[in-house]
């Protein structure tokens, strides 16, 4: 039995949800998100609760039960609160700045890296060594954070590079004489 799928998703005030022919949609103050429905799972809205149940007892249906419940929860949370990922930049001369619709990163390359900010995503740089990515779609926010981190991942000797705020870097000992 899915332990996640059993729990219904509560709809906070200000969020409206609808179930279409092939998608679940949630609309709130941060926009509207659509989640495509899987054919082996039923989704129903009752008393400001979204309930997900499997249609059959196959292994695939039970796997999709928890997955669909998690995706519905992410859509509801996204349109009401949004998701934020913070990145830290470590290294001498490494910095970031938001210029118009671009994130400009100086990461030790010969030229700065320009990353265009997609629609529905906001980025802030309170300090030159931190980047905050905020948006309604959890998958999109995580993908953008991973792409920015991939420009210069943290290296294990000095820890230079772009890392997640909560990430710990396993440090290696350098060469000995």
From TrEMBL:
Any one of the GO BP annotations: cytoplasmic translation
Could you confirm whether the keyword Ribonucleoprotein appears in this record? yes
Q: Where is this region: Disordered?
A: 158-177
The chain positions of domain Large ribosomal subunit protein uL6 alpha-beta read 12-82, 91-164
GO molecular function of the protein, one example? structural constituent of ribosome
**Where does the chain cross the membrane?**
none
One term under GO cellular component: cytosolic large ribosomal subunit
Q: Which InterPro entries match?
A: Ribosomal_uL6-like, Ribosomal_uL6-like_a/b-dom_sf, Ribosomal_uL6_a/b-dom, Ribosomal_uL6_bac-type
Which keywords does this chain's UniProt record carry?
A: Ribonucleoprotein, Ribosomal protein, RNA-binding, rRNA-binding
Family the entry assigns: Belongs to the universal ribosomal protein uL6 family.
Job of this protein = This protein binds to the 23S rRNA, and is important in its secondary structure. It is located near the subunit interface in the base of the L7/L12 stalk, and near the tRNA binding site of the peptidyltransferase center.
Its assembly, as annotated, is: Part of the 50S ribosomal subunit.
Q: What is the name of the protein in this document?
A: Large ribosomal subunit protein uL6
Taxonomic classification? Bacteria, Pseudomonadati, Pseudomonadota, Alphaproteobacteria, Rhodospirillales
Q: Which gene encodes it?
A: rplF
